[in-house]
Design goal:
4-stranded mixed beta sheet, endopeptidase fold (from Nostoc punctiforme), 37% helix, alpha+beta, single chain, 26% strand, Immunoglobulin-like, 331 residues
């Protein structure tokens, strides 16, 4: 009887340890919302599966960098393998993913918008080559091997805040349960909303001159007077989540000026509008130079003409003298 009680006690103790361990490693984030998989849930999952790190329950993705720093995690702006990347500018709520590897200018990231398909996998290549229709291709893609997606470090399209390094992560994050209870699930759901691909402009306006704007037309030609040495360009975007580069004041050189306005949509799609502005030559200077050239040529012609007359007279006199001398000798 005593041995049985001891065995029951040991079994109960092991069960409690297992329960505590499961609780400690449970993902504090909601897996999905109306727009798909939450990036915070996915990044926490990959950090645990690939690095064996149980992250605390921090707030929105854009705050992870500072939350991690406050919880004693090593952070920085240098990309490293086995780290969490924090994009503070991806959306208003930010975005996070797990960095598996870094090679040259490429980050290999597992995040909720992927993962990506391994297009070099022999099985996938064979499946596509043997496909007979769009439906069979869909099956190939559905069964394809998944890999980390590739992102460039520079140019930075999504606003990288920094990296949370997991190699020396704290063993027992004390703020896990406390921060988890404070987390706003509604904001976390918003992290995974579908990003807009609208990179259109609604209008382009200039402080001098006019163009007939069409959002589907990306190149415009304009001529301005010589005295216009600067031009101010303003533009309005169709989607408020997009960003614009290239508006403001621009210096104009004489001749052709190419000015580009770049619109980046929320999902990273880019559209470029080009203004080809020609600044005229200075007409008064051109005319003066032309008049001066004509005058100089006239003076040269006049001098040349004036020199010819004495020369003719001299040659005539010389010819007459020689003729007279020959005539006198014959006599």
């Amino acid at each position: 009887m005593k041995k049985r009680l001891i065995l029951m006690f040991i079994s109960l103790l092991l069960y409690m340890v297992e329960v505590i361990n499961v609780y400690a490693t449970s993902n504090p984030y909601r897996e999905s919302g109306p727009y798909g998989t939450n990036c915070t849930w996915y990044a926490w999952k990959m950090a645990y599966e690939k690095a064996g790190v149980s992250l605390p329950g921090w707030s929105n993705a854009k705050n992870w960098y500072n939350d991690a720093k406050n919880d004693g995690y090593e952070v920085g702006t240098t990309p490293r393998a086995n780290s969490i990347i924090v994009w503070g500018g991806w959306t208003s709520y930010g975005h996070v993913g797990y960095v598996e590897a870094v090679k040259d200018n490429i980050l290999y990231v597992w995040d909720s918008t992927g993962p990506c398909i391994d297009r070099n996998d022999p099985e996938f290549i064979e499946c596509i080559e043997n496909g007979t229709s769009e439906e069979t291709d869909k099956i190939c893609y559905a069964n394809a091997k998944r890999v980390a997606c590739e992102y460039t470090i520079s140019p930075d399209e999504y606003g990288i805040t920094g990296y949370i390094y997991l190699d020396n992560a704290p063993k027992s994050p004390i703020s896990s349960q406390l921060n988890s209870s404070k987390k706003d699930d509604s904001n976390d759901i918003s992290n995974s909303k579908v990003k807009s691909n609208n990179a259109n402009l609604k209008s382009i306006s200039l402080n001098t001159g006019n163009i007939e704007f069409d959002k589907n037309k990306t190149e415009y030609n304009l001529e301005v007077e010589n005295e216009t040495d600067k031009i101010t360009i303003d533009a309005i975007k169709e989607d408020e989540t997009a960003s614009i580069v290239g508006i403001g004041q621009h210096e104009l050189k004489i001749g052709l000026n190419d000015i580009k306005i770049t619109v980046t949509a929320e999902d990273g799609s880019i559209k470029e509008y080009t203004l080809k502005i020609t600044r005229k030559e200075l007409e008064s200077v051109v005319k003066k130079e032309s008049v001066a050239n004509d005058k100089n040529q006239s003076i040269k012609n006049s001098k040349s003409k004036n020199l010819k007359i004495p020369l003719i007279i001299l040659l005539t006199c010389l010819f007459a003298s020689i003729t007279l001398l020959i005539f006198n000798r014959r006599k």
